[in-house]
Model the fold of this input.
Amino acid sequence: MKKISLPEKPLAENKEDFVRSVMLESQTAEIFSKLAQYNLDLIPLKGIWFSKILYSDPSHRHVSDLDILIKAGDFDKADKLLGSLGYVADTKISDRLAFGSIVEKVYRRENSLPVELHNRVASGLAATEFSGDMFKTAIAGEPFNNPHVLLPSFEETLISLVFHFRDHGLRMAEHQSEDVRRLFERFSPDMATSIMLAKKYHCLIALMMLLEVAELPEQALLVEQSIGRSFKKELLTILGAVEKNGVASRLPLQQYRPAERIWRLMLHLFLARDSLKESALSQVEHILYELKTLHKILRSK
Done:
């Protein structure tokens, strides 16, 4: 397949990211050491992992928080250990993002990056199963060299990004798109294995869309060919268009944030049928709130 050339960003343009990378390194070492003392296994997600393996200098990868996956059964113990390090659970954010609080808890500490502790990579039964399976196959190794810091395969890493992309309504930041491109440039995840995992965990369409948004058309085409005819795929093509940072709605009123937000919420329910039991109520509450907000905006016009 065609190789992708990705130039590194000059360090001088990333002073804030450099400071964040120093904080990331310090906090990661502290938290990982504390959890290891109590024999808690963890999997580093996104920025913690990618800044070390996808970039020649960790400061070249923008990091806004620390994402850590913990086994569901160890979550309460990890919560207390973070508290012993001075981190305080941010209940206001958890309340505001009630849907996100299903799978994560946000912690803050003065002069530190926020920490997001996850009990699974995303909402839904399939994502829950996938998270548990990752702990069975992930292994310890570089660059962390800690027996309790487990690293998934690159194909599993790709699927974890797919679940995150799906839960955010098929949208991701530019640095996240770059992560996907660098993952393929540096490590070439096997597409046959990735497609097999996506089929097993019911996220084929989201995988196809993620690869399109990340501007990896050859890989996206392989996934599309494996899907064949699909009502969901065709409807998504009709109602949405692939843009730089995700799938944009072709529906009216999308210039208003509440309408755009409703589109994202509906997308999630459309693609993640396995998570309806646990997330539908929260999603519906969000949709009703955004509908009321949109109604006020339109009445004021």
